[in-house]
Give the backbone structure.
Amino acid sequence: MTHFEEELKHLKQEVNIMFALVRTQIAKAKDALVRLDKDLAREIIQTEKRVNAQELNIDRDCENYFALYNPVAVDLRYLLAILKINNNLERTGDIAEGIAKFLIQTQQSFDQELLTSSQLLKMFDECVSMMYEIEDAFENEDTIKARSIFKQDEVLDRINLEANKNIEAYIRLHPDNIEQALYVLSTIRKLERVGDQAKNIAEEVIFYLEAKVLKHTKKV
Amino acid sequence: MKGRTKKRVAELIAFNLFRIMSASIVLVLFSILAFIVVRGIGVISWDFISKMPEEGMTKGGIWPAIVGTMCLVAGSMLFAFPVGVLSGIYINEFVKDNWFKRFVKLMTNNLAGVPSIVFGLFGMSLFVNTLGFGDSIIAGSLTLGLLALPVIIRTTEESLKSIDKYHREGSYALGATKIQTIRRVVLPLAMPNIITGFILSIGRVSGETAPILFTVAAYFLPKLPSSMFDQVMALPYHLYVLSTSGTDMEASRNMAYGTALVLILIVLILNLLANFTRRFLNKKIKQ
Amino acid sequence: MIEAKNLNLYYGSFQALKDISMKVPEKSVTALIGPSGCGKSTFLRTFNRMNDLIAGVKIEGDIIVDDMNIYAKGVDVDSLRKRIGMVFQKPNPFAKSIYENVAYGMRVNGVNDEKLIKQTVEESLKQAALWDEVKDNLKKSAYALSGGQQQRLCIARALAVEPTILLMDEPASALDPISTSKIEELIHELKKNYTILIVTHNMQQAARVSDHTAFFYMGSLIEFNETKTIFTNPENQQTQNYVTGRFG
């Protein structure tokens, strides 16, 4: 293994750490929301600092590798992909933090009926599962798995589309709980964006492995 | 387009000119060789090579002259090669680049241009008379050696100079001293080229007449030398005698050509031998 | 510990190095870069006093190697050079067998124990990542090897005298890309045990192999920094111009 390959291997480990951090943040956000656990929410906000630090860490590594090793071909695509994946993960982390920040100000536990009818929890689970899948696809350089993300994202899109109708129905039944209902709606919107980030990551994985640009095209 | 054609014509003329020039040189060389071979081959026989001259050098062989020339070549090289190589090493490796070095180099070059008869006279006055060697192999060898010295010194110097400085530096960088570097690294690399100088001087020495005229060569001496203080016959001088002052020049005419042929052959064989050594050394370096 | 202190070097009246002070970090690779004639090679050669061989060189200031000023009076240059190995621009194996090339340094330093020599030759060739390629042909002439192999042989030869410091003067500039990357990989291995100073015309090479980089310009040390810093965020504008190819 050449020295540069070793460096790339090291970088991959750093990205894996970033994946795990962000995935855990989303999973914790769900737990904090279900139980209205404010300590957990605060923990998420604390951990977000680590996520940001790790983002900078990976950015700096990439910068050094670009400057020192003049990567070409697959190495070049790999580093470019990592730069973007890194960015996508950081945004995902921001979303988790956004959810946590709201929870801290919330006084009342969420109505179970609202959570079920809006399919919010299902959406959370779906997001975490997507994060697992895409992490796996990146780790094992598996483009088939990466492509399966696009399918999974459709589930999120559907929940998101149905959300307006579901929330409307809930509000009609519980006009006294509009604030919670609106919050759930905005969380659904946020999680939809988590799906988009995962999809972007999948595109980058495919880009670096197959040199195919999937952006702005119909997915296979 | 036109300029191009003109250029090509000029090129064609130049090439053919070179071709004709080199062909004419080869032609002259081969004519001389052919002339000598045709005239001389008739008298060449085992007897001619292995027998003493008889009947005022009109009959018999040239064995003592062959032996004499061999002795002189060997003697002169035994003297000139070590002295020349050591001087060359000294001048190139140890003398600083100053007026003294330039002076020595200039003198060496001048020495190479001195007519050989002057060497002969010098050899006679120094070795034969002053040192009292008399007409002898040692006096002749030393005189011939002096004649060969400049060539050997110059080629040694040049071949040492042509060794890439990286080789020396590589040796110094490992903590080797100057002497170690020269002996173990530089000389082995320079040896093939030094041998070339050696070959050139053998050719020159074996063919010279003037330096041996007053120092060693015998007009007629039908016996082999027993020590290095003996006189000997030598091929070039024998050839000179046969063709200018023999007892019966008409009768010995063909023998003269035969002698010339033998001399040429000897020079050729020595050259081949030395060349083989050089190739061997070169190969040893490269394999 | 290697350190240059206020080093000035003159070729006759021309000042080739101007007041250079620099501490070379141990067991790591330090690259010297800069345009042709900037003094980087001259600087490298002050560490094993190779400049002594050139007539008219005058040196002021100190070079400290292992707490000793190597330009002090009475320093044994031959034994100094034994402690500081050097690899040159052009592979320069001696006209000897592969084995004898590596053994040379020991022999000229008076080692006679043939068993020890044999063992050291093998170890050195292994360290230079050449052993597997030549172990069956140790008696063959070094000139039978390819350029890249010859250069690794020269590295093995330098290692055989057990130096602590390796000086490399553009060690890959005469080699093809494959041989070059082999040499670069080797440098990465060697820095675990040796302090390496490398002069290179090839900035990318400096970037790839070194931990620290010194940028020289017109005989002065302009910037000495971590290689990462030099190539991503140099402190000096001249360094920036050089590494970005805007001059030099």
